[in-house]
Amino acid sequence: MKLSYGIVLAAQFLTVLALPSPNKGKSASSTTSSAAAAVTTTTPAAGAEEEEKANEVNLTGHFGVKVNIGGGNIKTDTLFPPGQNGALEVEIQDTQARVLTVTENKTPAAAPAGFTALESVSYVVAMEGGAANLTLQKIDYIRNANSTLDISKGVLGRLCTETKTFVVGAGVGETEFEADENELTTPVDNIVGEFAMFLPDAAAATGGAAAAEGATTGGSSATTAEVLAQLLGLLGVGTAGGN
Known about the structure:
Protein name: Cell wall protein
Order of helices and strands: HHEEEEEEEEEEEEEH
CATH class of the largest domain: Mainly Beta
Distance between the termini: 7 Å
Keywords: Signal
CATH architecture of the largest domain: Sandwich
Strand content: 25-35%
Shape: globular
């Protein structure tokens, strides 16, 4: 009888703890106000974005064909013909005019360990006069409209000329995924070189997700058991062998 009474009291106590407090309502109200303020302040940013796009040139390039890039510090995006899963785009900005040439290497080096190439080719980027002092230089990869492949974890690799192997993260910045455009974009130290896009192996990615989920579930169960044991202890009722 004592154990049943203790369990009832513990359940009632947990129910009371689960009820929303007045402070929670106030916090939600504050969050709503902050969100409204954030929306209000995005109007100037949107105008700045439109101005930036107006100062931007979009070109269509072809592999093995020279592309004339104008100077004037105007951002120029050159999009190349799509491959199996996506298309390469080269972003350049500089005060001086440049000549860009991109060719496909149809027999590229193997993908780094733990990665799979997004395309069966790599891209060799050349530029007359080199790439020193460019204002902006990026390698982008845009998923084809008819593709359902998840490229959000994609990364850019650069070919190491000494070892003849692709290295992820060497001489390149962090690859970001822009969901609205289904695009991977990566700043590079020197756009002259050979590049390829890679995805982490599916088995490794799945294993990591499963491990993370298991750790979260285990932590949640342990916390619940501890709370129940503490409540029963305060009521003078043991979790096992109680009368």
